[in-house]
Design goal:
Helix content is 16%, strand content 42%. The chain is elongated.
Length: 985
């Protein structure tokens, strides 16, 4: 007989259970519009609808939203509600029938007799919808057509209720005939009579049994006979008035004292007494699919939820692991510690303390920490006690295993047992010990750091060992050698925890992420990384466990978490939620170890043992549902804007006029948990990149939005268990103002461009006109100057002729007059042209010099040269009388007053792009040549005006440079005039 059963000292610690259910009660005192209610219904979106005497109420788990008479109901008492399709409902009160689509209510005209009272809706598995009244059953065809439901003249229109049963049969009730009828698939009737004073409140099918709630109590219909029904094992008094079976096949019912009962594995719990539930007068039952049972009474509503926690309190003790001992007891029996000379076992319902005959001189009263390692032999066990030694328990005795490991205070305490090879590993400083029942082996790592404190060891099925230590080290023991794998992680200054699952190495890099690696020889291949950014709510912890679906249970520093990363996870983002252990009274951070087995999670810590039913806690958990309660634009409800045609829907996008730039959204969340604190997160795509958080309330506001398309994303987070919703999306578009439209901006651009082109053209025209006028003025000015220049020259020439005549020199006067006439003729020819070629100017200037030399009896001599080395000089054109005044001044005012040799030099040449004219005399100079102060030659004045006209006429910038020449003694020696005119072809 196995040794645990031979132990004589066994005592049982009675299992202390947490309450199996938690109840919340609602009445008119805490939000329910009326305590008198008729029906309860759950729609496809998860909302609970309550048909009450005060109106129609929608419940989201925390708030009641009332659709009262202001929505269009004739009166407040609502009898029943049924969802035809998503967001489309049928609603009835006693006399009227309504259709509600997206909260828009429309009354349906049925043409039913006025004496009928509308009671409730019934939907068959085939999808047929019936309306039950006090005078018959009517089948709903569409919103405008109802037809009487009848099988033959016996029943006529007096059917008051109908219910599907097995094999396509139906159960019908007729108050007129005081009977229940079974209608088979061929419409054949079987009548089950009722007592004349009995009234049928309700009937329903549970499995193969048909239950009838009569005024005299609950009856069960078997073999066409009505038998009184009381649940087996029920010891309450009276009969049943209602009955309901939940998804776990547990029975809920009420008795004639209106007490609420529930079966629990054959035991019956009086919920009215245990939870102080209200009196259950003809209740309606409803499950929401997440473990909540809604029970609606005539005077309120209660919600029950099964608690997934079972607790076993234990004395405070330090234990670093637990392992299952299925070979000793049941598969759920596990050993979790040693305290005061006893091992402690748990079989899931109670604990056993097993005394140990040590056979060794050990004071177990001073035990501080221990770790247990089962071997292949179920009767043998390693007990590793820090500060005392390593012991081998065999035949009820603890024997010192091997003292060769030295100072036990420095040995690590956390490790795993390699059950395949019957060994485990521990370490001290830089030495790793491999301990098996037969031997101890030592290994030294080939690393520079010799002060390593190891944390954990894990093993693969092929014999490789991975272990971690402080100082950011990760090692592998392969073929009796230790290798450092830390560089492959590419992360520094972190501690690691290691786990093996399906021969993949899971590394918890504390504070960063949980990573999964495939092992290829000495190479680690990263498969995935799970961090805060993609679902891991807490990146710091000490232990993880995988369940049967490869999801993770995480014992983090801030609590216990469940991470859906297994076969049902979708995409790179993992669903994670915190398990609210505070409901059970266990302090989550005080949990030392977790272990998963058979849909149960076992936790061991200072506070005790806790067993969690994971299927009840996780699989039935559904994410929150975020919905839009109301939207407002410029303070007006969006529903009202849609109704009045101000806003419209276009391809699931709300189109708003341009003036509606202030929007607000009042958000809500469907959640029926018992411990929740909802906080909302949102972002406006097109404006926000990061999520924003509403620290208070549920109202999201946007002010002064610009025109354009937006999408509001909103999600809610339950702070109690960290569950979050899938983001709710609401798309809207604000129409642009006239000045914001693309066609307006294009038109404005075209208009601006047209105006700009027009202005440029007008400016060019104005400039052309100004230039034309300036040119005409310059031409007129030049002509005027020439007209003044010609008389001046003629006047001087006639003076010379007069002088010859007065001197009675007729022959010289005649010769002079002949030359003068030729010059006058050429001058008059030139007077019709603004500009003449340089060759014509040279000829006229030559004739003028000859006349002046003849006039002054050849007292001076001159040279006139034209450099023709550059052919472009012949293309030069100048005003006809431009040079004559300078030559005249040189002769009259420079040479004539001088005594002695008199010489005048005129040079014309081209130094492209400039034309040069150099006039130089060796006369008395300008100081002597202008005897009167302030006097200026009229010819020189006319020449300056001609140069100015030339600037405007040819758009050139000519210049005149006058230089007074000096002899070596500094006395005047003549004048040099240089005229430079830019060449223009």
């Amino acid at each position: 007989m196995r040794w645990p059963f031979l132990l004589s000292i066994l005592f049982t610690v009675q299992l202390v259970w947490a309450d199996s259910y938690v109840m919340r009660s609602f009445s008119s005192n805490n939000g329910l519009i009326s305590s008198s209610n008729n029906a309860i219904y759950r729609d496809s979106s998860g909302f609970i609808w309550i048909c009450s005497y005060g109106g129609l109420v929608r419940f989201d788990g925390s708030l009641f939203h009332v659709l009262d008479n202001s929505k269009g109901f004739r009166h407040y008492q609502i009898s029943d509600l049924l969802e035809k399709r998503k967001n489309s409902f049928l609603i009835c009160n006693e006399k009227h029938l309504f259709s509600m689509v997206e909260n828009r209510l429309t009354e349906i005209r049925t043409n039913l007799p006025d004496h009928l009272v509308l009671d409730r809706f019934i939907r068959t598995p085939e999808g047929q919808i019936f309306l039950q009244t006090n005078g018959g059953m009517f089948q709903w065809i569409n919103d405008s057509t109802y037809q009487s439901f009848q099988y033959d003249t016996l029943l006529s229109s007096d059917i008051m209720s109908i219910c599907p049963i097995q094999n396509n049969r139906k159960l019908a009730y007729s108050h007129k005939h005081h009977a229940v009828f079974i209608i088979d698939s061929d419409h054949l009737l079987t009548r089950i009579p009722l007592s004349a004073d009995e009234y049928l409140y309700d009937f329903f099918v549970l499995g193969k049994d048909i239950f009838l709630g009569l005024s005299s109590g609950m009856r069960i219909l078997r073999n066409q006979q009505l038998l009184p029904y009381l649940p087996e094992g029920y010891r309450g008094g009276g009969f049943l008035t209602s009955i309901y079976r939940d998804h776990l096949d547990e029975i809920w019912f009420t008795d004639n004292s209106y007490r609420l009962w529930k079966s629990d594995h054959g035991q019956y719990i009086n919920l009215s007494e245990k939870y102080n539930a209200p009196k259950a007068i003809l209740p309606h039952y409803l499950e929401d699919g997440s473990g909540n049972i809604f029970i609606q009474f005539m005077n309120g509503m209660c919600v029950f939820r099964e608690s997934p926690y079972r607790e076993i309190p234990i004395a405070s003790m330090n234990s670093y692991n637990m392992f299952f001992m299925s070979s000793f007891y049941s598969p759920d029996t596990f050993c979790y510690g040693i305290a005061r000379n006893k091992l402690r076992l748990c079989d899931g319902e109670k604990t056993f303390d097993l005394s140990i005959e040590t056979g060794a001189a050990i004071n177990f009263e001073e035990l501080r920490n221990c770790q247990l390692f089962p071997t292949k032999d179920p009767k043998k066990l390693f007990v590793f006690v820090r500060g005392c030694g390593i012991f081998f328990m065999k035949n009820k005795k603890l024997e010192v295993f091997n003292p060769q490991v030295g100072n036990l205070d420095r040995l690590i305490l956390t490790s795993n047992y390699d059950t395949i090879r019957n060994r485990f590993y521990t370490a001290r400083n830089d030495t790793v010990f491999c301990i098996s029942p037969d031997s101890i082996k030592r290994y030294m790592p080939h690393v520079k750091n010799h002060d390593i404190r190891y944390h954990s060891f894990v093993y693969t099925r092929d014999g490789r060992v991975f272990f971690s230590g402080n100082h950011r080290l990760l090692f592998a023991l392969i073929n009796h050698k230790i290798y450092d794998l830390t560089p492959q992680l590419q992360i520094q200054d972190r501690d690691y925890s290691l786990f093996i699952h399906k021969d993949h190495l899971w590394i918890w890099i504390h504070g960063i992420a949980l990573r999964e690696y495939a092992i290829d020889g000495m190479k680690l291949i990263l498969l995935r990384s799970i961090g805060k950014e993609n679902g891991l709510l807490d990146a710091n912890g000490n232990h993880i466990q995988f369940d049967e679906d490869d999801n993770l249970w995480i014992n983090a520093f801030t609590g216990l978490y469940w991470l859906q990363c297994g076969k049902n996870a979708k995409g790179p983002v993992y669903y994670s939620r915190k398990i609210p252990l505070h409901l059970s009274g266990i302090d989550a951070p005080m949990i030392d170890r977790i272990n998963y087995s058979h849909d149960k999670l076992y936790t061991v810590g200072v506070g005790g043992i806790m067993i969690l039913n994971t299927s009840s806690m996780v699989l039935r958990h559904k994410p929150l549902l975020t919905y839009q309660v109301a939207g407002y634009a410029n303070g007006k409800s969006i529903e009202g804007l849609l109704k009045n045609g101000i806003a419209v829907w276009n391809k699931n996008t709300l189109q708003l006029p341009t003036t509606f730039r202030q929007l607000s959204f009042e958000m809500g969340t469907v959640y029926y948990g018992f411990d929740h604190a909802i906080r909302y997160h949102y972002r406006l795509l097109g404006q926000d990149e990061e999520w924003k958080t509403l620290l208070q309330g549920n109202l999201i506001q946007f002010n002064n939005l610009s025109s354009g398309s937006y999408t509001l994303e909103c999600k809610s987070l339950n702070l109690a268990d960290s569950s979050a919703t899938i983001p709710y999306r609401f798309a809207f578009h604000i129409q642009p103002a006239l000045y914001e439209t693309w066609w307006f901006r294009i038109s404005l651009g075209i208009l601006a461009f047209t105006i700009l082109v027009y202005m440029i053209r007008q400016r060019d025209k104005r400039k052309q006109k100004e230039n034309r006028i300036a040119m005409q003025l310059s031409e007129l000015k030049l002509e005027a100057l020439q007209s003044q220049m010609n008389p001046h020259f003629i006047f001087n020439a006639l003076n010379s002729i007069q002088n010859y005549i007065l001197q009675h020199d007729e022959m010289e006067a005649a010769r002079y007059l002949s030359k003068f006439s030729k010059l006058i003729r050429k001058t008059l020819d030139h007077s019709h042209h603004q500009l003449i070629p340089i060759g014509e100017i040279v000829q006229s200037l030559q004739m003028y010099l000859e006349l002046e030399a003849f006039r002054f009896n050849h007292e001076f001599h001159y040279t006139l040269s034209l450099d023709e080395s550059d052919d472009r000089i012949h293309m030069m054109e100048l005003p006809p009388m431009l040079l004559q005044p300078f030559v005249e001044n040189a002769i009259l005012h420079g040479l004539m007053p001088k005594q002695g040799d008199k010489h005048l030099s005129i040079q014309l040449y081209m130094n492209f792009p400039m034309f040069h004219c150099l006039i130089e005399d060796n006369g008395v100079g300008r100081e002597y040549g202008h005897p009167r102060e302030g006097h200026q030659s009229r010819g020189q004045k006319l020449t300056e005006g001609m140069m100015d006209a030339l600037r405007h006429l040819r758009q050139t910038d000519p210049e005149i440079i006058i230089t007074d020449l000096k002899d070596p003694q500094g006395m005047p020696a003549g004048t040099r005039i240089e005229i430079n005119i830019p060449f223009e072809k």
